[in-house]
Amino acid sequence: MGFIVMIIVGGIAGWLASMVMGRDASMGILLNIVVGVVGGLIGGFLLGGYINLSPEWLSYLITAFIGAVVLLLILNLVQRKSVR
């Protein structure tokens, strides 16, 4: 996948994950892209390419979204423990 497409798909996945996790107000576009790209790596590691859909970018988007949600869950747990 091209670098530009990876950034766009990662940004969309990070934005969707931040909305689902309730962190959209505290994250900007750059952090959404970072969360989406890192989420894509995590999702690829966890799922191992099991999601294969007809448009290739859609399977990347779903994988990055799942990974980004996992990443934000971990960040929420770490931040919650450091506050206490």
TrEMBL record:
Keywords: Cell membrane, Membrane, Transmembrane, Transmembrane helix
Membrane topology: Multi-pass membrane protein
Locations listed in the record: Cell membrane
Key word Repeat present: no
Pfam families the record matches: Transgly_assoc (PF04226)
Membrane-spanning residues: 6-22, 29-51, 57-78
Chief subcellular location: membrane
Keyword Cell membrane: yes
Family: Belongs to the UPF0410 family.
UniProt name for this protein: GlsB/YeaQ/YmgE family stress response membrane protein
Organism, scientific name: Parerythrobacter lacustris
Lineage: Bacteria, Pseudomonadati, Pseudomonadota, Alphaproteobacteria, Sphingomonadales
